[in-house]
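Consider the tokenized backbone below.
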């Protein structure tokens, strides 16, 4: 079980750099944030959907695919994913959408009794949609649009997410403002009977007064479960990530129990099985162990592991897949090496950007042959801070964070 009041404190925040000042809801597909906006810079045009990288960099802007005669001035508020379909509600209609080239297209829609749907969540374990507004009841619909029931609430929710690791029936986590200015409260709800419980209230980052949306994921950082929200703060809307709990399904302990006699040694092996999303670099773990030879239990030992790439010494074999292995070392000073593989000959663009979105270096822009490649970036003329490397090559379109520490 994750969370349950143990943490929920914000650990990351970044301002959004679109022209919007009315960002409404947020969803996450494992690689990108999707944020809904009310298009306050073009009141006669369609409302917008914004694609952001994990680090909060704006990648692309899309129109919300709601017919002009049916769209509201607010547009989609809450966002959620049903499998690969992005879902939102506008003017009492739930739209299921997919990205087709440079635009979203509606693949299914049905009417709901909620307008606006400030929060929206899909429960894959029951194939239900749960939605509502801060002052409305909580509505539950089947995936095909069939109405199931509704529940009362009195805590004014602004966002909602399904908790995939919750062992009890309280698998939905709501967020709301307060108590007091600049705080966010978390409640969990059992969608089967409408019962809910208070979890915790935490202080927001950077004086943020209000948060909306919500998605629980471990894809933003593979070592922690997080609750991701979009913040509403005048001209400084942004993304705020709350840490729920640690998450380490990629490791195991070999020979965890045993008896050690005087003068003997006991070997314990910590095995790391890295996920594809792991960047190369240093990882730190903390192992608890108990023994009757110490007065204080448990004892905590810090373990440091370095995840490094393996050089392909074969000159004849070609990689079977497209891949981007990130940079190593990272953090770095002053240089780092970026590795990637091409399944076939492709046009490659690899550039470095600062936090303002300005390009500070272009490492390659041109055609490269199939195979494994590595390029070195030298940051000796740059200031310490956070930068982003962006690789576009064939089907690869990825942005990774770099940290220059001098």
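A designed sequence for it:
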């Amino acid at each position: 079980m994750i969370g349950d009041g143990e943490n929920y404190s914000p650990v990351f925040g970044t301002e959004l750099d679109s022209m919007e000042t009315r960002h409404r809801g947020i969803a996450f597909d494992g690689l990108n944030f999707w944020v809904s906006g009310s298009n306050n810079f073009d009141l006669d045009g369609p409302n917008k959907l914004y694609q952001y990288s994990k680090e909060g960099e704006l990648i692309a802007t899309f129109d919300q695919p709601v017919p002009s005669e049916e769209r509201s001035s607010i547009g989609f508020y809450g966002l959620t994913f049903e499998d690969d379909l992005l879902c939102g509600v506008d003017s009492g209609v739930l739209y299921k959408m997919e990205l087709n080239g440079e635009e979203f297209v509606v693949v299914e829609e049905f009417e709901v009794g909620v307008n606006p749907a400030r929060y929206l969540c899909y429960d894959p374990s029951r194939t239900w949609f749960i939605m509502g507004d801060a002052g409305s009841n909580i509505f539950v619909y089947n995936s095909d649009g069939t109405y199931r029931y509704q529940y009362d609430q009195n805590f004014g929710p602004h966002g909602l997410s399904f908790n995939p690791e919750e062992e009890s029936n309280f698998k939905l986590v709501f967020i709301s403002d307060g108590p007091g200015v600049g705080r966010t409260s978390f409640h969990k709800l059992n969608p089967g009977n409408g019962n809910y419980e208070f979890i915790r209230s935490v202080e927001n980052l950077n004086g943020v007064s209000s948060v909306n949306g919500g998605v629980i994921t471990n894809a933003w950082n593979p070592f922690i479960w997080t609750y991701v929200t979009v913040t509403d703060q005048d001209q400084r809307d942004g993304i705020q990530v709350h840490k729920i709990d640690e998450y380490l399904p990629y490791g195991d302990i070999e020979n965890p129990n045993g008896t050690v006699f005087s003068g003997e040694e006991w070997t314990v092996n910590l095995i790391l099985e890295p996920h594809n999303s792991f960047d190369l670099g240093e990882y730190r773990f903390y192992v608890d162990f108990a023994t009757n030879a110490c007065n204080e239990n448990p004892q905590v030992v810090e373990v440091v592991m370095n995840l490094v790439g393996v050089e392909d010494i074969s000159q004849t074999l070609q990689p079977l897949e497209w891949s981007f292995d990130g940079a190593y070392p990272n953090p770095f000073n002053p240089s780092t090496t970026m590795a990637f593989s091409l399944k076939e000959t492709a046009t490659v663009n690899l550039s470095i950007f600062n936090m303002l979105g300005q390009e500070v270096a272009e490492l390659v822009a041109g055609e490269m042959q199939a195979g494994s490649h590595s390029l070195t970036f030298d940051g000796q003329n740059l200031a310490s801070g956070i930068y982003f490397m962006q690789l576009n090559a064939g089907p690869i379109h990825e942005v990774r964070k770099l940290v220059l520490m001098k």
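The CA atoms of residues 66 and 90 lie 8 Å apart.
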